[in-house]
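Hey, weird one. I pasted the Mu-like prophage major head subunit gpT family protein sequence into the form twice and got a warning about non-standard characters only the second time. First submission, copied straight from the form history:
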Amino acid sequence: MPNITPAVLSSLFTGYKANFQRGLQRAKPTWNMVATEVPSSTRSNTYGWLSKFPKFSEWVGERQIKALAAKGYEIENKDYESTVGVPRNDILDDQHGVYGMIFENMGEEAVTFPDELVYALMMAGFSSDCHDGQYFFDTDHPIFPNVDGTGTAATYSNMIAGSGEPWFLLDTSKVLKPFLLQMRQRAEFVTKTDPNSSDHVFKAKEYLYGVDCRLNVGYTFPQLAIGAKSALDAANFETACKMLRQMKTDGDKRLGMKPTLLVVGPGNEAPAQKLIKAMNDASGASNIHYNKCDLLVSPYIEAAGA
């Protein structure tokens, strides 16, 4: 039976951290297909620049200055953690090796955890505000007649109403995608194992290993995405494509959006496959929507109450 010396604990930490790193390398997240990572160095980030989608206009007279919103869209970072206790007796009985798989899985979870946050944000877009004070997916986003954001606002829609499982059509070809992942601190593997300073070891006879990170998610430009709860069929898909291509910004400037990614949940995977991945339609004719955009199926997208 080994003694639990500082050297033993150091060796355990090194081994478990290696397991964690293997998990980090093996994980394949998808959040980066729909969201842009933005660095953060403070408690929160304020995105005043989201009030204006930059477009060129003819230079006549003075420059048309696009004033940023005085009260910007603010995203405050949140703390997240995951902790595992390794029983003291398992170390004494040389049974600690079985925890390697747990820490490798913890590494995978650290990389894919942003998927949960980003797709939850996407789902919440029908009832959560973005920078213009409207729900991210809404029928009456404001748009102004002048390039500088002045004049009487008209409205545009980036939503197709319905009651089914939501699906989303995005333009992810821009530098900025429809959603953002604000990163303050990446996942770090930490431990509290010193028996001379850890009350937990004394009271619970277990050594603590964990991961913590600090981040948050948010919305960017509504013009980059269409959210729908209607049936995923050819007619509604065509409507979403048309809406996205017709998106404008202040000054009646066409943005040149194009559908590049269809995001669905498991409930819409089959109709999505038929819609854009089958070469022929049900009648055998050529499918005009074949490979019109990429397809992403996320387990985090589901119908309300599912």
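That's the output from the first submission. The warning seems to come from a hidden character in my clipboard, not from the data itself. Residues 60-71 have pLDDT under 50 and may be disordered.
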